[in-house]
Amino acid sequence: MTRLFADRMNSVHRSFVREILKVTEDPEIISFAGGLPNPRYFPVQEVARAAEKVLSQCGEASLQYSTTEGYLPLREMIAKRYAKKGIKVSASEILITNGSQQAIDLLGKAFLNKGDGVILERPSYLAAIQSFGLFEPRFRSIPLQKDGVDLQILEKTLSEGENKLFYSVPNFQNPTGITYSQDKLRAVAEKLSESSTVFIEDNPYGDLRFMGEDGPSMRAYMGESAVLLGSFSKIVAPGIRLGWICACEEIMEKLVIAKQASDLHSNYLCQRILDQYFMDNDIEQHIAKIRRAYKDQRDYMVQTMEEVFPEDVGFTRPEGGMFLWATLPESMSSIHLFDRAIKEKVAFVPGQAFYADGGGSNTMRLNFSNSDKERIFEGITRLGKAIKEEAK
Amino acid sequence: MTRLFADRMNSVHRSFVREILKVTEDPEIISFAGGLPNPRYFPVQEVARAAEKVLSQCGEASLQYSTTEGYLPLREMIAKRYAKKGIKVSASEILITNGSQQAIDLLGKAFLNKGDGVILERPSYLAAIQSFGLFEPRFRSIPLQKDGVDLQILEKTLSEGENKLFYSVPNFQNPTGITYSQDKLRAVAEKLSESSTVFIEDNPYGDLRFMGEDGPSMRAYMGESAVLLGSFSKIVAPGIRLGWICACEEIMEKLVIAKQASDLHSNYLCQRILDQYFMDNDIEQHIAKIRRAYKDQRDYMVQTMEEVFPEDVGFTRPEGGMFLWATLPESMSSIHLFDRAIKEKVAFVPGQAFYADGGGSNTMRLNFSNSDKERIFEGITRLGKAIKEEAK
Q1: Which of B263, B267, B290, B367 to mutate to test the interface with A (most CBs of A within 10 A)?
Q2: What is the per-residue pLDDT across B70-127, written as a single tens digit (0 to 9) for each?
Q3: Which of B46, B114, B179, B377 is deepest in the core (most CB within 10 A)?
Q4: Quick one: fold of A64-280?
Q5: Residue A175: cis peptide before it, omega within 30 degrees of 0
Q6: Contact B134, A258 (CB under 8 A)
C-alpha cells in the first residue's frame, strides 16, 4: 500500500515531541518535556456554568451546524480585545479555528505550492514545521538572536529567492522563550517591505507576559501583510480547542474556502460556551492569576538552574510564556543526555526537533508552566546531576 | 496579493450550497435547501447532563490537551457499535475527527498527489468534491443508477488509468438518496480487486434507515482496502462536531500524522461529553425516534410531490437519510427554477452543484429532515406551482 500514499507524507513523521511524551507517561518521571498549560488554572467551574447556561438557554441552536467563519459575537469579542491593544480590525477579519495549529494548516493550504519559500526562525515551533512541511515548501531558517532573527542572515536569505510566508512566534517563542525587540520587529518589517512576503505572527503566549512591557504587533509595521494568529488554549483551556486567524479580507476569502473544505466549521457548542464564559467573567483578571503563577514557576526554575547547572550551560530568561531554552557545551548531545535523564526520572525535549534543517544537537527545551515548585526543584536538581555525569 | 495564493485555490470556490443558504435566511422562505438534521431531536438535556458530569468529575483533565487519535473510550465505543453490525475492527483503527468532513481532508492529504485519480459518484457530495479538489486530483465520475454506480462505465473508467480513491456514500446518498444494492456493492468490489484503489465508504446517514434492511459494509468485500467514515452529526448533533475514520493500521499511521499537522487533536471537551452521553443513554432508542420522525416527513414529502408535481418530474424514494432528488424535464433548468421558486418563497439546491464535471442542470436536491409536515405540504405545493409556471 505504501506506494499509494502522497509524496508529501514522505517528508513528515510522527511528532518527535508527542512520541517523547509517551516515554514520560511514567508518573515517577518529572517532565519538563510537554507544552501543557497548568490545569490548576483552568476555569473549570466557570466553563461548567457557561455550558449549563448555553445548553439551557439555546440548546438546539448551539448543537446545530453553523457558519464557517465562526460565531459572530466571539469574533467581535476578539476584535475588541485587539482594539484594546491598539490593533484595529473588524470581526469580518477574524476566522475561528481549531486552536492556532489549524490556522497554520489553513495558511499552508491557501498560500503554498510545492517548492515555495517559507522563512522560519531557527529554531522554530515544531508543529509549524510539520504543518507547513505537508505542503512541501522550501524552508529557509534564520537564526534567532536574543532579540529576534539575525538581520544580516535575513537580508542574505531574502536576496536568494522569493518567500511567500515568514512564520514567527515573536513573543516568548516556542521553543526558546525569546521575544523580539521593537527595533528588531521594525527592521524585519523594513527588510520585508521590498518583497511580497506575508508575515505570520503566531502569538499564543502574548497575554502571558510577566515581566517587561508589551511591544507592538507586526500589524503596526506591515499592515495587511501581517496575519495574526491567536489561541484560547493558554488563557482559557486547550480542551475547548479554539483559536483564530486575523487576516485582511482578501486573504480571509481564501482561508474561509480552505476551512470549509477542511471541516466546515469549528466546534460550535464550545464556541458558544466560550463566548458565554467571556460574557460572565473577567478574563483579564484570570490572565493576571496565570501570569503570577507562571512567573513564580519561571523564577524558581531559573534560580534552581543557576544553582545546580554547570557554568558552561547557558539558558534564556524569558519574560513570559511557558518555555525556556538551554544550551549545553557544544560537544554534549541532548539526545544522549535525554537517555541519562530518563534514568534519573526527569525529561525535556532535545532541541534538534525544532530545527527544520538539522543542528541544535546541544540544546533543549524546558517547560515551566506545568510543574509546581517542588517538582521544579527536584527535577532541575536531577537534570543538573545528569548533565554533570554526561560531562564526565 | 492574488499571485501569492496557491494554485489549488483556483479550482475551488465558496460552497454554492452555503451561498444559497444565505438567500434562504428570510424566515418566510420554506427551505428544503439545507442539509440540517431536525433540531427537535437533538438530545439537549442529555448533553447538558453529560457536560455537567464531565466538568464536575474530571474538569481539569477534560480541558487539557489530549491525544491525536482521540479519547480511547469513545474509540472503543465506536468499535463496539461496528461489532454489533458484524464489522470487526479494533479501537486502534479508529481516529476521531471534526465531523466526517475532516476525514475527507485527511484522506486527501494522506493519499493525493496532484493529478491522481479519484473516482466519484455522479452526482456526488459537494463538500467532498471541494475537499478533494484542494489536492488537485483528476476526478472521474461514474453515473449513479437506482442501485449504485453504473458498472459498465466503472469498468471502462478503470481501464483508462489508475485511481487512488473511490469516494462513495453508499447509503441514502447525499444528494440523491440512492442506496447501493448488495449485488452492486459486491460487483464494484470485484471490479476494484484488480486495482489498488482504496474505497472510501462515507456513511453519515447509515443509522437513519427507516425502510428495508441494512446491507453489508464494503469492508466485508474489500477488507482493509475499504476505509469507513462515520459521524455523530446526524445521530446526536452537528454542533459537537465529531466524526471518525476507521482504517487499517497502515493507513491510520499516515492519517494520524496528517491530523497532528492539521489541528493536533479534535475538541477534547466534546469528546468527553459525547462519551458520557453514550454511557448514560440508549443511543439506539434515540436513533429509533429520529428514524420514525424522518420516515413520516419523507413519506409526506413523497406523497405531496406525487399529488402536486407534474407527471414528467421524476424523483427518488429513499429508504433513509435526509434527502431526495428530483429530475425535471430535460429542457428545464433548475437554476432558473430556483429564481422563480424564491419568488414563491420556497428553496432547494439546484443539482448541478453536485456534478464535478458539469451536467445535472435539470436536477434538484430536496431535504426532508428539517421541515415539519405543514411546511412540507406548503413548500412542495409552492414548488409544484413554480415548476408548472416554469414549464409554460
Answers
A1: B263
A2: 999 999 999 999 999 999 999 999 999 999 999 999 999 999 999 999 999 999 999 9
A3: B179
A4: Aspartate Aminotransferase; domain 2 (3.40.640)
A5: yes
A6: yes
